[in-house]
Design brief:
- This protein is mainly alpha-helical.
- It folds into two domains: 211 residues, HUPs (Rossmann fold, 3-Layer(aba) Sandwich), CATH 3.40.50; 73 residues, Orthogonal Bundle (Tyrosyl-Transfer RNA Synthetase).
- The chain contains 15 helices and five strands.
- Helix 11 packs parallel to helix 13.
- It is globular.
- Bound molecules: tryptophanyl-5'AMP.
Length: 325
Amino acid sequence: MRILSGIQPSGRLHLGNYFGMMLPAIQLQQGGECLYFIADYHAQTTVHNAKELREYVNGIAVDFLAAGLDPERSIFFRQSDVPEVTELSWILSTVTPMGLLERCHSYKDKLARGIAASHGLFCYPVLMAADILIYNSNLVPVGRDQKQHLEVTCDIAEKFNNMYGNIFTIPEPLIQADSAHIPGTDGQKMSKSYNNGIYLSEDEKSFRKKIMSLKTDSTPVELPKSTQDSLILQLYKLVATPEEYAAMENSFLSGGRGYGDYKKTLADALWNHFAPYRKRRHEILSSPDYIDNVLQDGAKRARAIARETMRQVRKATGLGDLPPC
Ligand code: TYM
């Protein structure tokens, strides 16, 4: 069983990335051969400053390792250290119908947010298909916002296999029921680009301030509160034990406590949950070569797999032998 996922270095890591993808990915390290990568080619669709991109890549690497990615168990690498993936992306683009890409919500959302409609942004899902298919991945842990991209990947893989023979494994998404769509402080999906993120590396003061600013309704302290769509309850569920969660839910229904109280409980629970992450982060930051060594080793291992797939793809499609590295 090969498990793969990626994250764009287009900002700092937030609770949505952590609970939606990173935590499941880390838990899966026990059960298969895992490949996790930093999607820097993808980030180039929105980050056009070299220094910023390098800083984001480094930040995501620190965060992923501090969150529990074990480079002994998993192959952890930078997408652009395996340039074969861009070749596969090109080959896949020659069998990808325009209509398939035109239907992608993520592309339309990005245009609606004012991002320029570049060719890279439009064919983003083809590069993502190449990421997944070049490693013959079976399982791809992602948040709900990536579901359509996974469907596009399967469509492209099937089309390619029908034309050229069974080269690619058809992957399956792994989308967690409780954490596939973590809300931000305003109730929309938490996102690097919506200004509603709570970041793992925030200092305590700003972390707590953001929790205290979570959107709530104006039900007075003494009255029962709605448990439907409560941001506080949704976030608390991620870190509380079932008993702690049931106690807060019952208290909502009985009334008598204000939202400020619940937010404080939530802030304590979340802050404590990330104590091991902060400790590990501090250790990683104090050994500067560690990240480079991990990423270089990961790239070597990932590239060997990718090049094997590309040998088959080149042969099946009529291209020449893969040139040496
Ligand atoms: P990215 O960088 O936007 O997000 C990384 C992962 O975090 C998940 N996520 C969320 N999950 C729950 N709630 C949220 N609010 C939330 N926000 C983000 C995303 O679903 C994602 O799993 N295109 C990908 C990166 C990528 C990739 C791949 C992923 C490139 N190639 C191949 C898997 C396989 C992306 O932009 O993720």
